[in-house]
Write a structure and sequence with these properties.
Elements (H helix, E strand, L loop, with lengths): L20 E5 L1 H8 L7 H9 L8 E6 H22 L7 H7 L8 H19 L3 E3 L9 H11 L4 H11 L7 E3 L3 H7 L2 H9 L3 H6 L4 E3 L7 H15 L6 E7 L4 E6 L5 E2 L3 E5 L12 E4 L5 E3 L8 E2 L1 E5 L13 E4 L4
Parallel strand pairs: 1-2, 1-4, 2-3, 4-5
Antiparallel strand pairs: 6-7, 6-14, 7-13, 8-12, 9-10, 9-14, 11-13
Helix pairs in contact: 1-2, 3-4, 3-5, 6-7
């Protein structure tokens, strides 16, 4: 059945994927985690998200192959310097080893391969719980063009531009970029200055960064902060998808009074998702999904059974009768 009833426009809908927050992790955060350095609690942030028992909300952690290559570059230099300083024959000082690391002087290829193997094991630790998206392949559309626009029109460095496009490209589709780089965050969060740049980017890319956000690890450094950050993101990202609010909850009869907004309506056969965020954030771990059956949909004022309406009452399961749902957001589920 078409959503265009009585000349009304198609309704706003939400899909299950809209409840999933994707965090893109920058290179500097991964380095702190692997070296167990807790500056800006970067290490704690990933340790908590790695343990799904402490991360009950719907969050995915992603990064890109480009970030992994940066990781190789950092540790390749780091391990080289340490080797040259601790080698019993060479015993170089830090300055000498650091200068030589630009060209990896006086080291055999077999020693470099051993360094590469050590780095691979570190990458495997990341791969255990972070989805590494392969951006740099032949199917990647408009990647280089997008990087070039950023280099022409923003203050992003070459490396930051590559990370930015890796995070918000259509293949990655992250919602928030987690980084410790202050300048990177400052430039990315400058909404007004960034507006002109975004308008010049490819269409698919513009869609992905409509709600762009940069955060630091401390924003996800405890269970409470993770839930609070998720709540903030969810309400911002899905604000255009809310079709109405619960204006009355008749708990004794298991009925919700719902008022739709922006010409939206509810009809028999709809699946709706009702969310009221409480102090424990149970709304995100215990979803309230309701199917509107025949005879369960009534006009709010007349209490007569109807097929569709903008201000209605809906009967719900007894399982939710004890919840105070007044003020809850109401979404229409897509393809349930």
């Amino acid at each position: 059945m078409s959503d265009e009833i009585n000349g009304k426009k198609p309704r706003s809908t939400i899909s299950i994927s809209d409840f999933k927050l994707r965090l893109f992790v920058d290179t500097n955060v991964l380095i702190d985690y692997l070296e167990d350095i807790n500056e800006d609690v970067a290490s704690n942030f990933l340790k908590i998200l790695k343990d799904q028992r402490k991360c009950p909300v719907n969050i995915e952690i992603v990064t890109s192959d480009y970030v992994i290559w940066e990781l190789y570059g950092y540790f390749k230099q780091d391990f080289y310097i340490k080797k040259m300083m601790t080698d019993p024959v060479r015993q170089w000082g830090f300055k000498q080893a650091n200068n030589a690391s630009r060209e990896f002087k006086d080291i055999e290829l077999n020693e470099m391969r051993k360094i590469g193997t050590k780095i691979k094991k570190l990458v495997e630790k990341v791969d255990e719980f972070i989805d590494i998206i392969k951006i740099m392949d032949k199917e990647t559309l408009m990647f280089s063009e997008t990087v070039e626009i950023l280099l022409q029109r923003s203050k992003f460095s070459y490396k930051d531009s590559m990370v930015f496009v890796s995070a918000f490209h259509n293949k990655t589709h992250a919602h928030i970029l987690i980084t410790r780089d202050k300048q990177f965050r400052k430039e990315g969060n400058s909404a007004e200055r960034f507006k002109e740049i975004v308008n010049n980017l490819p269409l698919d890319f513009r869609k992905n960064i409509r709600y762009i956000d940069f955060k630091i690890p401390v924003d996800f450094s405890s269970e409470d902060k993770i839930k609070e950050s998720y709540k903030e993101w969810f309400e911002k990202y899905n604000q255009d998808k809310v079709i109405g609010r619960v204006i009355k909850h008749y708990s004794e009869s298991n009925v919700l009074g719902i008022e739709c907004s922006n010409s939206n309506f509810l009809k028999v056969g709809d699946y709706i998702y009702v969310i009221k965020i409480n102090c424990n954030f149970d709304a995100f771990t215990k979803p309230i999904i309701v199917k509107i059956e025949n005879e369960n949909l009534k006009d709010f004022e007349t209490e007569e059974s109807i097929i569709n309406g903008g201000k209605v009452t809906v009967k719900i399961s007894e399982d939710f009768s004890n919840n105070n749902l007044e003020g809850a957001m109401v979404f229409l589920l897509d393809n349930w």
